[in-house]
Amino acid sequence: METVRKKLSVLIKKQRIQSVDFLRGLTIICMILVNTPGDWSHVYSILLHANWNGLTLADFVFPFFLLIVGISISFAYKSKQISVSIFKKIGIRSLKLILLGLFLNSFLPYFPFIDDLHTIRLPGVLQRIGIVFFISSILYLIVNLKQLTLIAILILIGYWVWLSYIPLPNGQLPTLERASNNWANFIDYTLLKDHIWKPDYDPEGILSTLTSIATTLIGIRIGAILLKPDKRSQLLLLISGIGLLLSGYLWSSIFPINKALWSSSFVLVTSGYATLVLYIVHYLMDHKGLKFGSIIKQVGANAIVIYFLSNVIAKSFYLIKIDTKTSVHQYLYENLFVYSSINASLSSLLYALSVTSFYMLLAYILHRKNIFIKV
């Protein structure tokens, strides 16, 4: 049995591009880090999302992951075989992701959430991944790469025109500010009402899902480059990253970089940075054969389950009470990480780092046991 496990482990490693697992793992690690501070009132600004326009470290996490979803699609369906079975698998996987996301949004200990169904948030990170994965996978199977690129370009341009120039139903001209006369916010509030993150917008809302699909389509194109491991592909990866970055920053002068809106400039800039990071790691790992970041790759190999568990446990720690006033989270944070000798933001970061380290250890254990959980 042990011999079989070792052979299976070697086979899995051979089939994976190490740099992609590394970037996926790094993204999940950053996602946990920014999602689990000790105290939300004391967080370093770089670990918080931009208030509206702009970029922080936290704003890179989700688009990086969606770009990797696109890369994974190009690997998984590179044969371009179309069958009822393939479409069924894509649909089932997408549905699982959406249901897991809805579970997280409605999750309470012992599930006393029936009375709160009218306010459960419907959008979410896993829901968006599920929808984007489904649409992008189908597009990849039925159109060629040039058509896929054209679709991404049309989405980005169409989204910019829609949000910037098409009047709202009440006749008002749209704005790009956080307000009800912003098209993305208007649609979310009209269709989802109380089922959104904030009263006036949702960062994983309906309309911005369109441009998140464009992020994933760019990832598919990057994946197509990685499938041709030669010197020319390395150069093409570098040129693609620089080109995406420059075009995004140029566009940002008229369509600001904005994660909440998932603006077209945001798509290009974050895709550019992700591609350049991937270029560096791919060159070092897959071309030069340097070995580093094993535990980060191990997180990447079980990305969804690590992310899901981190959310479930974090919510449980907030909601389960040790006494009438103190949650498990508050008890652990105040008793283990709060000291008069260090400032509150550092204490909060130390808590987040300890939580992140726990999930890295969990990923290591899963990898050691050759357990790879796929949704």
Question: What does this protein structure show overall?
Answer:
This protein is mainly alpha-helical and 375 residues long. The protein has helices at 2-15, 18-35, 57-76, 84-106, 125-142, 145-165, 183-192, 209-226, 231-251, 264-287, 294-301, 303-319, 328-336, 344-368.
- Which word captures the global form? globular
Q: In angstroms, what is the radius of gyration?
A: 21 Å
What percent strand? under 5%
How much helix is in the residues?
55-70%
Please write the string of helix (H) and strand (E) elements.
HHHHHHHHHHHHHH
Distance between the termini: 25 Å
The whole-number mean of residue pLDDT values reads 89
- Could you say which structural class the secondary elements and strand pairing correspond to? mainly alpha
Low-confidence stretches: 1-15, 110-114
**Total number of helical segments?**
14
**Number of E-type strands:** 0
Q: What summary fits the major beta sheet? A: none
Write the layout of secondary structure elements.
Blueprint: H1 2-15, H2 18-35, H3 57-76, H4 84-106, H5 125-142, H6 145-165, H7 183-192, H8 209-226, H9 231-251, H10 264-287, H11 294-301, H12 303-319, H13 328-336, H14 344-368
Helix pairs in contact: 2-3, 2-10, 2-11, 2-12, 2-14, 3-5, 3-8, 3-10, 4-5, 5-8, 6-8, 8-10, 9-10, 11-14
